[in-house]
Amino acid sequence: MNETDLMGDRDLDLICMGRVAVDFYADQIHSPLEDAQSFSRYLGGCAGNISVGTSRLGLKSAMFSCVGTDDMGVFLRNQLRREGVDTTLLRSTPDHLTGLVVLGVSPPGRFPLIFYRENCADMQIRPEDADPDFFRQAKALQFTGTGVSTDSMAEATREAVRTAKECGCSVILDIDYRPVLWGLTEAGDGESRFVASEKVTRILQPFLSQLDLIIGTEEEVMIAGGSETLEKALEQIRSISNAVVVLKRGEKGCEVYPAKSETPVSARSFPIEVLNILGAGDAFASGFLRGWLRGESLETCALWGNANGALTVTRHGCSPSMASFTELQYFIEHFDQDPQILESPELLRLHQRTVMGQPRRHPMFVLAFDHRVQFQQTCHELELPEAKIIEFKELVFEGFRNLEAQQVQRPLAILVDPQYGSRILEQSAYESYKVGVPIEKAGAFPTEWLCEEDLYQHLQSRPTEWFVKLLWKYHPEFDEQQKSRQLSQLQRLDSVCRELDRRLMLELILPESMPQDGKSLSAAIAEVYGVQVYPFWWKMDVPKNQDEWEMVTRTLDQHDPEAAVILLGSNVPIREFQEWFRIFRSSPYACGFAIGRSIFWEAWLDFASGTRSREEIPEIISNHYHQLIKLWDASQATAT
């Protein structure tokens, strides 16, 4: 067993100290950076990537660094929190900008990158930032070679290592050698991986005697050992340090040199076609550390490191490409049996759920007022202009905001359409509540999209945190042509959502003219899973009969044990939800509601007919919405 396993009572597994920056990856594969047209933004930096990678693999990780107070710093802090990384030691500095990196992807051999890190935020860690009380909660401190490339950071790192040793933490060095960040190449040459430098060796070597684990490529081990041959470098490191040395060898896997042993340990590699090697070493380190900090054998640590690195190099970006532990295990177990493992629907599904982060069953209370056809019919009947719909929806939104201001810790959300709610969406852009927007053309069957442009372009232009709602009519008794059309449209949308990392809420509607029982609903759900579509949330009219709802629950058990269901309201009176919620919450899949007309329809009819003033509407909305939340809370105690 690894000695760090003896510290199992510590709350944190790992403190990651050093580089955390924003990566802008060119979307155009094989394009020179000067010709790239668009970029995807990710969290990056060696320490930042490892904090995310280890967190996804089930470790409790913390980020020890600095970010700017600029928008990119806010992005990094929020992203780390979404990934479950502790940010207690992530200080914000108003005087330095967050570091940026621009990267290109041109496999197999070209991966240009440009660092924009002049006096950047993550190089501002101070010696006093190494809080002993926090360090005493952790099993290990990991720092990077880049973090000692300036005098001030070297001082801060020495203090962090000293504090870690005094607090009983293991100390890990990921050498992370980037010659450009040491001023050894032209400023724009971030691609070069090795330049011999006595200065770098001289700065790194005093740390070696204090280390428990060293991770590096062949070039990085040579710079740490101060030799241009690997054998002599290893010999020199071994003369100074008793640390386990992990030699990363890319597609060949790794070699692990235990303390006081000349015989390396290794594990199988996973030959795959490389898309992007950038960040592969951070993925490897994350997999290795998952094993090392849990007391696994060095062979197992190496296996998990090799597999995690292999998975990551097949994907765009680094931190978003990292695997969950379930995903990693699936890849290892099925690699030899499935030549198309990287295209496996199960592996892709597992990764998509890793990327999406938050558990699906976090409760969410959605005020749904994306209705269009029903409002239009009222306006037609009463000969009202459709501007009346816009006016009313903004009053509904005012009622939502009033309650949201009182219920600041509650998981509130809105679902509103861009046709009549565009100003509401504009006002929601920087708010903390969740926002959902429909994608279907109102009233259309078969399904059509509300956007005139390409579906991918339309969703790409929406904020990434907005979820996508599709009202989708389907029934197992449809003829084959209807089924094919509806399933094809659903698959197309699901494919775009997966490519863009958008959360899909699928509102499954059984047509009124067809059977509405639990058997029909269960069969429809099964047919959706049959075409490999796994919605982030289901939104459905749950049977009010306990036996029929249990039938649906068993279908979800069979096809998707991680599923989450949002209850839609069907315009029933609010008082009926007390019993309905009780039945609904008897299933583990129940995680909230998306209710609209039960809250606002009567108020809308009064408003449209002129019997209710606009000043009265927001309070009605707030009261009805709050009633439903209280009924939901009360139902928890009575759910069977």
The CATH class name of the largest domain reads: Alpha Beta
Strand order of the largest sheet: 5-4-1-8-9-10-11-12
> Separation of termini?
44 Å
Give the strand tally: 20
Q: Mind summarizing the main beta sheet?
A: 8 strands, mixed
Q: What's the overall geometry? A: elongated
Task: Tell me, rounded to a whole number, the average pLDDT.
Answer: 92
Describe what this molecule looks like in 3D.
- α10 runs antiparallel to α11 (345-356), α13 (387-406) packs parallel to α14 and α15 (455-461) crosses α16.
- β17 (504-509), α17 and β18 form a beta-alpha-beta unit.
- By secondary structure, the protein is of the alpha/beta class.
- The strands form three sheets. The chain has an eight-stranded mixed β-sheet, with helices on both faces. It has an eight-stranded parallel barrel with strand order 13-14-15-16-17-18-19-20, surrounded by four helices. Strands 3-2-6-7 form a four-stranded mixed β-sheet.
Notable traits:
UDP-N-acetylmuramoyl-L-alanine:D-glutamate ligase, TIM Barrel, 16% strand, 21 helices, eight-stranded mixed β-sheet, alpha/beta
